[in-house]
Amino acid sequence: MDTTAALIFIIAAFSLGLIIIMQRNNIPANLRRGLAIAAIAFVAFAFFLIVYSLTTMGS
């Protein structure tokens, strides 16, 4: 299985979360909650992809 797309998504999701945390004072208030929820969902799915790839590594 080619894991290039999953790796790119994992890097992008964690980068988005880091950027939102670092720039939270510069994000307008009406966008802050939506971006935070989206970033949490992306990071959670990226974590799931990491765990799934580790559990299926041997097969």
From TrEMBL:
This is Signal transduction histidine kinase. The keyword Transmembrane helix applies. It comes from Paenibacillus taihuensis. Keywords: Membrane, Transmembrane, Transmembrane helix. The chain crosses the membrane at residues 6-22, 34-54.
